[in-house]
């Protein structure tokens, strides 16, 4: 099943094109990361997916429903955690949950039960009577997540949910996201933190309103470098003429190779070099390096 399908999605603000003819498919059940520098168009894309703003061109379907013409059905399926805290600061944690639950059409009993479950799940019980405006940053984010989950949506859209949150707390958030994903929620998430993006099943990298790379984290890395990188150590110089293997760096007996496919080429390299080969190992590439490369070194 397809959770999100966007075709030709475009948003112009006056003469400025914030999102430029974007095609995006997010399959149900995945954790999908939408990445890119400030101003790339991530939030604008999300706001079109949630139906908050109207595309200049193109369309979005959420679980097959058109966002513009079947608004109610779409809203029921989406839980949205916006980039800016959007809750009532002068209501308590529990009051916010109750209010949003009722807005989503849950009855009093349902909303009470869901609120309790979510306060339990997200460690909000001790804050239930505290005003939202008086919560710390991380707790505000947990409340914002709880509100996004109040109507038990199929799709969670999280716009920079961990921005400005300390690293240990960011890790806790990711445990929660993975947990929700395991329980069947599709997740679309934006983040600036590349280490977090490694947690996603699929990624799309946006730049200036367009998607410039897409795939699993390892796909994106291979795309950036044109293959896998392998480091070998040789006991003496040797000829390494194998199709699909390119030497990209050599320092004495230590060489970096770019191989088109790690699994098939490694055995060929081992066979060719025989006892001259002292060590062979894949080089870990970070997503950050891959993205810098894909963005043209900027
Ligand atoms: N309502 C608007 N009117 C005019 N320009 C806008 C509007 N909303 C967004 N933009 C512009 O569109 C571009 C994309 O903005 P957007 O917020 O989608 O980027 P983003 O990828 O979410 O960035 P960030 O990582 O900073 O959140 C930016 O240049 C922004 O200034
Ligand atoms: Mg944004």
TrEMBL record:
Q: Name one GO molecular function term.
A: ATP binding
What are the record keywords, sorted?
ATP-binding, Nucleotide-binding
Coiled coil start-end: none
Q: Which residues form the ABC transporter domain?
A: 4-233
InterPro entries the UniProt entry points to: AAA+_ATPase (IPR003593), ABC_transporter-like_ATP-bd (IPR003439), P-loop_NTPase (IPR027417)
Q: Which Pfam families match?
A: ABC_tran (PF00005)
Q: Which PROSITE patterns match?
A: ABC_TRANSPORTER_2 (PS50893)
Q: What protein does this entry describe?
A: ABC transporter ATP-binding protein
Lineage, broadest ranks: Archaea, Thermoproteota, Candidatus Korarchaeia, Candidatus Korarchaeia incertae sedis, Candidatus Methanodesulfokora
